[in-house]
Fold this sequence. Notes:
The structure holds three protein chains of three kinds.
Chain A: H1 5-32, H2 36-62, H3 69-84, H4 87-93, H5 108-133, H6 135-155, H7 157-160, E1 166-167, H8 176-194, H9 196-206, H10 210-213, H11 218-244, E2 246-247, H12 254-267, H13 272-292, H14 303-318, H15 329-336, E3 355-364, E4 367-377, E5 382-386, H16 393-400, E6 408-413, E7 416-417, H17 423-429, E8 431-433, H18 446-460, H19 469-475, H20 491-503, E9 509-513, H21 521-538, E10 541-545, H22 549-555, E11 558-563, E12 566-571, H23 573-578, H24 580-587
Helix pairs in contact in A: 1-8, 1-15, 2-8, 2-11, 2-12, 2-13, 3-5, 3-6, 3-11, 5-6, 5-11, 8-11, 9-11, 12-13, 12-14, 13-14, 18-19, 18-20, 20-21
Chain B: H1 2-32, H2 41-54, H3 60-81, H4 91-112, E1 118-119, E2 129-132, E3 135-138, H5 139-161, H6 163-173, H7 175-180, H8 185-210, E4 213-214, H9 218-233, H10 238-258, H11 265-282
Antiparallel strand pairs in B: 1-4, 2-3
Chain C: E1 2-11, E2 14-24, E3 29-33, H1 40-48, E4 55-60, E5 63-64, H2 70-76, E6 78-81, H3 93-100, H4 106-119, H5 121-125, H6 136-148, E7 154-158, H7 166-181, E8 185-189, H8 193-199, E9 202-207, E10 210-216, H9 217-222, H10 226-231
Parallel strand pairs in C: 3-8, 3-9, 6-7, 7-8
Antiparallel strand pairs in C: 1-2, 1-4, 4-5, 9-10
Helix pairs in contact in C: 3-6
Amino acid sequence: MTDPWWVRVARSATATAMMSIALFVLAIVYTSTGGSARELLIKELLINLMLVLGLQVFMGNTGILSFGHLAFAQVAAYAVAICAIPIATKSQQLPDLPFGLGDVHLGSLTATLVGVLVALALGAIVGIAVARTGGLAAAMITLAVLFVVDQVVKNWQELTKGAGGLSGVPILKGTLWLWLAAVLAMFVAHWFGETRAGRFAVATREDEIAAPSLGIGMFGARLTAWTVSIAVIGLAGSLRVQTIGSTNPRQYTLDAAVLVLAMLVVGGMRTVTGAVVGTVVITVGNETFRQLGDPQRLDIERFPDLFLGAALLLVMLLRPGGLLGDIELARWLRRVTRRSRPVTGRVAPERSAPLVADDIEVRFGGFTALDGAGLRVQPGEVVGLIGPNGAGKTTLFNVVTGLVESRSGVVRLGDHDLSRSRPHDVARAGLARTFQNLRLFANLSVRENVTIAALAAGRYRRGEPPVDVDGLIAAAGLTELSDRQARTLDYGNQRRLELARAAALSPEFLLLDEPTSGMSDDESAAMVVQVRTTAASVGAGVLVIDHDLAFITRISDHVVVLSEGVVIAEGTPDEVRRSPAVATAYLGSGA
Amino acid sequence: MTTLLQNLVDGLGRGSTYALLALGISLIFGVMHLVNFAHAELITVGAYVAYGLSTRDVNWWVLVVAIVVSSVAASIAIERVAFRWVRDASPFTMLLTSFAIERLSHALWQVLVSPKKKSFPGPGWAFDTWTIGSVRFEIMDLLTIAVTVGVLVLTALVFRRTLFGIAVRGAAEDFDAARLMGVRANRVIAGAFAYAGFLAGVAAVMILMRSPTAEPTLGADWLLKAVVAAIIGGLGSFSGAVIGGLALGLAEVFLRSYLPDGTPQRLTDAFVFSLIALLFIVRPAGLFRVATAERV
Amino acid sequence: MLEVDGLTTRYGAITALHAVSLRVDVGEIVALVGPNGAGKTTLLNTVAGLLRPAGGTVRLDGDDVTGRDPAALVRAGAALVPERRRIFRDLTVEENLRLAGITASKPDRRRRLDEVRDLFGVLAQRWSTSAGYLSGGEAQQLAVARALMSDPRLLLLDEPTLGLAPTLVDMIFDLLEQLRAQGRTVLVVEQSARRALQLADRGYVLRTGRVVAEGAGADLAERADLFAAFVGIGE
């Protein structure tokens, strides 16, 4: 299914090495002509790189905007400064240092470690809030954090010496440590993308409703990404203060945060490659425009700011995904080094638990969507759910899968009561679904879509046999397209992909919401085959909503007819088709 | 008691300015789902226009008109030139576009005029005070409150009585349904930006009367609080924006006066932001929900 | 009055309408029926200008209005009563109606407000109430009244009886008759397929983006295989 851990580490290392070497070569060429000013630029570039990568690990993988990351870099920087400044110098700047820190003096390595740990400690608290809320509110929380930290630093004079900042931090000799740290940051960013946690975070970014439907918990995925990103940015802050030799709040303002944001976004925040490219482009661009704006040349003050604003604006208007979009070096490596490892001897598991929904009542305000509806699906059975528009079919699905709360009634999988369960718990119990409006992970490839579900199965559905990702893709007829981004597929293929992804959860039941919607008659016929094959290979029963009665007739063992929130008929497909009550439900009764 | 009253007026004065700015931000969000981080740049525009005109020795009333008019014009221009192109993009893209414009604005003023502050004469009576009994009020505070009340009444009238106002409210609720009624998309959005520009212009007048300086980062100082106030109130809600702004102003003033003596003023900002963070954790959608349902 | 020729509309990767053709003659009621997802709403939205077709033409009284935006369609004399009504819940009944009259001159608007007030007694009683407090039936009447504010020659209605109790369904069908009596042309998408076809002069059955049956309304309503055509059970 996925490659063993050492393969993934090796891949991250290779991608990192390739980027590092490219950067190194460029740096050598650049600094060979020209003096220490150029060396300073390289140092600035490396620090920027770490800051941006720290932000990328979180923003790129969760899609949540963060203004506050720089606050944690600042926290780390001050922690390092307080620990690393020689005691004599320190007592001059911070005579009233509390907590006995006046006697602390650590070497640079230990101090760096302390910096990262302090950043993590603070980051954990904020991370819990951010991971819980998500969206614009989370962005606002991070903005608030940026300001709070800024104000505390400026005002807690005993600890920080206020707005003046601290100086006298021992400077690291040469650029070796900086390079090592930058390479480490690149490696961590790459490696996180290869981990299961990273893949889960990406899933939450792509679709907030589909991710939990595969068993992925939004909170845990976001918090993990946040924590790793804080570690990297803590490292960045720690190294920055030991490169410049001093730290002060002016380095960590909202302006600075927007600069880092711009570097990330211009290149493309979803990929490490994009982050690196963006950083180089903006850093070099800034320097170029600063020189151009020199009094001896064009004599324009603050030319770089103009460049930054214009660059950001142009990218947003013309290429909002960033210059590189989704082009990722590591992904290309993955494709090139992939070895097919077919899963053999996989036996579909035996299932014994039926899916039961009983006497479900749902009201939306004054409107009764479901009025005591219920149904039962035996293991391995295929049940069709039909009914006119507005009958409540999708609402019933939403109740079963935990997206909508019912006023009364019971949902059970065997003995397991799922009535009040949240969507990710329902998925983990063994119910996988597809959606009426298609919820694929649009920017990920076909293979990646299915693999994430398989990873979720591996994590949350222990005891299931390993998932045959290639087999599921083949059953969906998508083998040739497995590296294509999901949003570039034509509609029929997208529907088939959604089915394959749901099946990769190795569920006990598949709930399919209008899988043939928009398909031609031929495609519907092919869908019958895919549903049967796929369900059989994972041993799943099927509950399917659809309006194409030909499809329903061919695929169902049993059909349930819903109309205005109530079950009005059920039986074999033929019985239902001939029932006048059903015809009336669809066509109305006439005048 | 005296302190209470003075704080109240002080807080409402500050809050009024936040309210006007927040209202503009909420208005734009309503029709476009864009959180406009460049909104406060309109204050900077007004400031430089005032500075430019002040060298010609004109009456302050002329400056008032010029500030408001230039703010409206700039708002319409920004929509036409930049935001129109990202109208259907993701909220993230729109947000970053507004950031880019904010950056560009800072940079342009620095390049075209100067990075340094430029002062110009304020109206003579700006720092006068008025004493009733033992209570002393700043005229500026009273004026700000009075003007804001007037503008809010005007806003209520415009949005309840005029067809333009009704069209904007309808479009904010359901843009496509408004188009089906015959409302022209471009006009209603441009109109919203224009009115938001008017609100920002009035806010700018109040700010500049008290502190007549033009500098590139003038907008930035007000931006954050305004955005936060709009979001606290719940984006898209008019009353929410006003209440959010007033609450923020009052919170700032009262916190400052009740924190122990010697606590630096800047630390009050820290408290305010901490409270705000707490609010977002507890009620992520803001105080006044503008509900949107997502179909699965 | 309305001529739709070879209309094809896409939603991202889906082709929702495949070269659909239909026509509505002056003074007719034409019913458009079909299962969910057939493309009926897509068709109305394309005609009304909310969606841009990928191919084909829409002609209103001989004028090519393909791809024009909704405001232009309203001015050309076509008004849509959208699916689920989409009334402005934050606005009062009066404000909803005034807004819908935005394309008219002030005196025309005032006159039509009075006309609508007379026609819909229930709305007159709720004139200053927030539309969000209206019941389903009242909301549907408001939606139709709004469309009438632009004095359209062609009315497009998308599932006007959706979610309404049987007595209100009767009321809606009476309303359609009244509109025809006023000399307006109506294209209505309806859930209650049989009844709508019985009322209509002509009808079309749409399935997966294609017309699968057409004819005189009464004929279609009596067809034995109507259900089969509807849900696509092959022979």
